[in-house]
């Protein structure tokens, strides 16, 4: 029998969102299995790969290491909230134009993490990008084209958020 | 053969945005692990805590009594599959062994071997239930090393196993009748090595070892299965070959292949590791028992411990050369740990080992040895990174003895068209020497490395690539776009390269072709997404369907122009009358006239191409080694590879860079740590440590386009070979930097420090 559930209220991708979750469910599980927002990917489920990166109250976190109940009152951005009806975010566009994905499973995590970086630091050096994104693993690309995409996006955004 | 003239390519060689791109950068793409369906239960696997143990009994009664638990299955619920060996992406599988690997029957053969599966309302209940299953084990002594396992007094993992003697790869072989953990012994022989070594002025003989490494795909294994009331089974998963997995399922479940449908969802990496089936079988069995669809996913620890990594190897190599730098003979003994069941990639390793060089006398003995570790699976150029590591390291030593630059030494001995591999096969047209010479002429090669503790290394590599069957179908839409259905799971952008070849043939834009990957009920047979063959073989299928469609459209144009089809021709995307030049219509215009000239046109074709162009490559790397800590920093890296005609150059380069990154990880830090009981001690990404963005430099490439003459678009496989050279290149660079020859992978900091200390101790 499922355990007793807690009622949690958050802001998710700009919209008030409520959900019920069990005490042992991670935010990643809530996003994927309760809210069916599967854009946030499960890679390792133990905080080592960054595939499940979301932005929580302005900080990027591995959502597999956050409990669903901990998100009470939080403002959360997932990959589903990055594009707008007007089109893709410049980072998303840059990932496509630079062929910065192969299988694509790590891509949402990289994009959410890169967006947080460019919002804080609009013109990061390549070294800074490599440092910031070292918590996100990609096994397909060798990272080269991801770095290029983030540099490219920074140039396109020109310091704009 | 008809070939498209490269000069006139309009789509091939350009870099359009991939068709699945928007879905993948917005999170909308559904991968296997994302699948969800109505009424779904969650399944979990109970795994053996012992590396080698008899399963005396399994009592699941307490688990079944837990509220929310629906069913439990064990090996006793499975039929015994046929004892038939099949190829599996350069490694091999036996249906009976595969069945036993999916779920242990009488013995658990490695830590992490599945022994039972449970289905429950939620993942957490399923996990709780696992702890309530009582398994009574009789723990046995494990065999944890290939050479140990070969000894006559080693415990037998499969008590009735006898050594099979093979003359070549995939040879059915003869049974030696000798009971042993050595499942197979193969030998490649060319010329006379005794005579070759007599000719040599210098001979170097060394021993090398490599560790178990994992493909490290980010998406864990997963499967959702539904066994319907009409006995039709549907499986949604991420796989490297739906048709192959359908066959494996049929054999293990003893179920008609026609009643199994494999639905390929997006796949989050594979590199060979998603060729076999694992969870698909218990998910289907649990679905049959419960009547519900059952979803199963692996944790990262389960992925490391319970799927198929690449074999550890213990190897000897001996190579001789003359004073003027000609390699006269090469010998090697390759002992590959197959894991718990036979079928390592030792044969493929032997075939690739010295193949970048023209050596007249070669002998390679290969041993496939079972040990109490996970059953090895394919990993990018299977077997070849291990085998080319000693080859490239020992050739570096010979170059030094001869007094030649290591790249010049390789150029002097480079294999060319017509030269023979160790198995006697002659090389077709290829660009081995072009890669070496391009690297020689590069800025990297001419640059000054500068500074103490810095060194430069080079290494070459060979990989044969594969052909395999493919099927495609196209439907021409009235607006001049084309719907393209294919059946090879797209692991790195292949649906775009296939669509681009289709667009090229019709003279339309890449964006006007809409590719999709279909399930096994919706498209003809496709081989594995493996062997660097997906773009190559689907290029052939596209070539067939587009040619057939063009003939059909010519007949429609002839009807419009009231002439015979043979009077109509097609070039540069335009149909025209040979007699009256002003009569011409573009592909798009003709597409709009299909309904009025006889109705819609769709074409399907299946192909089984031969002539996969082999891959050759040479890499150069500069490193700086910290002699105090043993840390290796890569300063500069260049990979030169013969990539044939590039369809989408960015994704070709991405394959080269990605394989190089995996090879760097293999060389420097990736390994399974096992304790003396066969327990893996580092089964997380943090402790196993695949390279991060911070560990790697910019990866430069030199892409040599030596078109494959046996392919209509000149395609040769590009995806695998780049993982091969980094192992040798980094070992050689470390030697150049600090003077120590590292012969045991990975070249971890503590080993480098120890080697430097030993060297200094000796010289003092």
Give a short summary of the structure.
The complex is a heterodimer of chains A (161) and B (764). Chain A is an alpha+beta fold and 161 residues long.
If you consult CATH, what is the topology of the largest domain in chain A? Ubiquitin-like (UB roll)
Assigned CATH class of the largest domain in chain A: Alpha Beta
State the domain count of chain A.
Answer: 2
Give the proportion of residues in helices of chain B. Answer: 25-40%
Please state the average pLDDT score of chain B: 96
How many runs of DSSP E, i.e. beta strands of chain B?
30
Features:
heterodimer; A: 161 residues; alpha+beta; Ubiquitin-like (UB roll); DNA polymerase, domain 1; 5-stranded mixed sheet; 5 helices; 32% helix; 17% strand; B: 764 residues; Aldehyde Oxidoreductase, domain 4; 7-stranded mixed sheet; disordered N terminus
């Amino acid at each position: 029998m499922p355990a007793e559930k807690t009622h949690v209220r958050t802001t998710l991708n700009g919209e008030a969102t409520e959900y019920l979750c069990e005490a042992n469910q991670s935010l990643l599980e809530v996003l994927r299995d309760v809210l069916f927002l599967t854009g946030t990917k499960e890679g390792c489920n133990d905080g080592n790969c960054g595939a499940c990166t979301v932005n929580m109250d302005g900080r990027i976190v591995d959502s597999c290491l956050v409990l669903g109940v901990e998100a009470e009152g939080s403002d959360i951005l997932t990959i589903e909230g990055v594009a707008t009806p007007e089109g893709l975010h410049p980072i998303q566009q840059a990932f496509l134009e630079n062929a910065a994905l192969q299988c694509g499973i790590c891509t949402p995590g990289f994009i959410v993490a890169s967006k947080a970086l460019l919002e804080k630091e609009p013109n990061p050096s390549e070294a800074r990008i490599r440092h910031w994104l070292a918590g996100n693993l990609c096994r397909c690309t060798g990272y080269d084209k991801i770095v290029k995409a983030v540099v490219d996006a920074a140039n396109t955004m020109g310091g704009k958020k | 053969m008809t070939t498209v003239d490269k000069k006139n390519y309009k789509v091939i060689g350009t870099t359009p945005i991939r068709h699945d791109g928007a879905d993948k950068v917005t999170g909308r793409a559904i991968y296997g692990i994302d699948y969800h369906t109505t009424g779904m239960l969650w399944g979990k696997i109970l795994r053996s805590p012992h590396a080698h143990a008899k399963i005396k009994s399994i009592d699941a009664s307490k688990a079944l009594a837990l509220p929310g638990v629906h069913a439990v299955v064990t090996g006793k619920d499975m039929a015994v599959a046929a004892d038939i060996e099949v190829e599996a992406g350069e490694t091999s599988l036996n249906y009976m062994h595969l069945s036993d690997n999916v779920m242990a029957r009488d013995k658990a053969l490695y830590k992490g071997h599945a022994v039972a599966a449970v289905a429950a309302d939620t993942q957490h209940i399923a996990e709780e239930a696992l702890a309530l299953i009582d398994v009574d084990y009789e723990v046995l002594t494990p065999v944890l090393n290939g050479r140990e396992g070969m000894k006559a007094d080693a415990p037998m993992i499969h008590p009735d196993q006898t050594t099979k003697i093979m003359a070549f790869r995939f040879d059915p072989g003869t049974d030696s009748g000798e009971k042993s953990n050595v499942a197979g012994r193969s030998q490649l022989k060319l010329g006379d090595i005794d005579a070759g070594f007599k000719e040599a002025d210098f001979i170097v003989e060394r021993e090398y070892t490599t560790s178990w490494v994992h493909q490290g795909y980010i998406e864990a294994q997963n499967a959702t299965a539904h066994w319907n009331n009409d006995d039709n089974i549907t499986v949604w998963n991420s796989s490297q070959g739906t048709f192959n997995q359908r066959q494996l399922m049929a054999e293990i479940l003893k179920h008609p292949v026609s009643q199994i449908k494999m639905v390929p969802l997006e796949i989050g990496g594979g590199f060979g590791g998603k060729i076999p089936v694992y969870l698909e079988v218990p998910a289907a069995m649990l679905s049959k028992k419960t009547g519900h669809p059952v979803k199963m996913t692996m944790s990262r620890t389960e992925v490391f411990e319970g799927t198929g990594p690449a074999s550890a190897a213990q190897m000897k190599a001996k190579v001789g050369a003359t004073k003027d730098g000609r390699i006269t003979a090469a010998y090697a003994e390759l002992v590959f740990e197959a894991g718990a069941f036979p079928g390592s990639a030792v044969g493929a390793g032997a075939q690739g080992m010295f193949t970048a060089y023209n050596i007249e006398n070669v002998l390679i003995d290969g041993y496939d040895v079972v040990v109490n570790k996970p059953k090895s699976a394919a990993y990018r150029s299977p077997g070849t990174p291990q085998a080319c590591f000693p080859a490239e390291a020992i050739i570096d030593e010979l170059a030094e003895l001869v007094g030649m630059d290591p790249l010049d030494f390789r150029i002097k001995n480079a294999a060319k068209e017509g030269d023979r591999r160790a198995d006697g096969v002659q090389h077709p047209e290829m660009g081995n020497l072009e890669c070496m010479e391009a690297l020689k002429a590069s800025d990297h090669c001419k640059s000054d490395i500068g500074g103490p503790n810095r060194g430069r290394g080079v290494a070459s590599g060979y990989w044969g690539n594969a052909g395999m069957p493919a099927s495609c179908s196209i439907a021409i839409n009235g607006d001049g776009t084309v719907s393209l259905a294919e059946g090879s799971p797209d692991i790195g952008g292949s649906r775009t390269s296939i669509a681009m070849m289709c667009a090229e043939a019709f003279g339309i834009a890449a964006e006007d072709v809409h590719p999709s990957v279909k399930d096994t009920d919706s498209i003809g047979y496709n081989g594995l997404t493996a062997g660097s063959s997906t773009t190559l073989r689907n290029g052939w299928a596209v070539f067939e369907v587009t040619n057939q469609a063009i003939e059909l459209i010519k007949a429609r144009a002839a009807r419009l122009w009231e002439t015979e089809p043979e009077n109509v021709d097609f070039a540069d995307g335009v149909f025209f009358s040979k007699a009256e030049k002003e009569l011409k219509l573009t592909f798009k215009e003709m597409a709009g006239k299909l309904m009025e000239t006889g109705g819609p046109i769709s074409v399907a074709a299946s192909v089984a191409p031969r002539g996969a162009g082999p891959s050759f490559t040479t890499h150069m790397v500069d490193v700086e080694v910290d002699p105090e800590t043993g840390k290796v920093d890569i300063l500069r890296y260049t990979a030169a590879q013969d990539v044939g005609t590039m369809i989408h150059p960015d994704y070709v380069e991405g394959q080269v860079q990605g394989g190089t990154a995996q090879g760097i990880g293999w060389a420097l830090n990736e390994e399974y740590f096992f304790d003396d009981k066969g327990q893996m001690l580092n089964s997380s990404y943090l402790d196993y440590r695949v390279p991060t963005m911070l560990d790697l430099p910019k990866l430069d490439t030199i892409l040599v386009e030596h078109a494959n003459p046996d392919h209509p678009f000149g395609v040769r496989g590009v995806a695998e070979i780049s993982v091969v050279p980094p192992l040798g290149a980094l070992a050689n660079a470390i030697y150049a930097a600090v003077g120590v020859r590292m012969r045991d992978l990975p070249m971890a900091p503590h080993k480098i420090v120890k080697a430097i200390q030993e060297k200094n101790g000796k010289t003092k």
